[in-house]
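Hey L., structure's done. Input below.
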Amino acid sequence: MIHLLSDDDKNKVSAAEIARIREGLANGCLLRTHPYVSMGTQVRVRSGVFESVEGIVTELRNRCRVIIALSVARQCFSLEMDLKDLEILSRSD
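Output:
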């Protein structure tokens, strides 16, 4: 195991995981880092029409897009956003 960023057990990466990443890169896979987001994560929109609106991730989709439920005037609606456009406020895990 290799430690990333700290010495605690939850931040260890196995040699097998690193080998898989290396193999994927060598085979032309495009790997991009993204913040870890799961359903139930509280987020805030960073910019645009909905800037500063907060919501909860309710679904994860292809290409790292999420749907968040936004509470506005006692109504909720879904909004698809790229992860890069969201600030993570708290995690559900």
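The mean pLDDT is 77. The chain has one helix and seven strands.

-- N.
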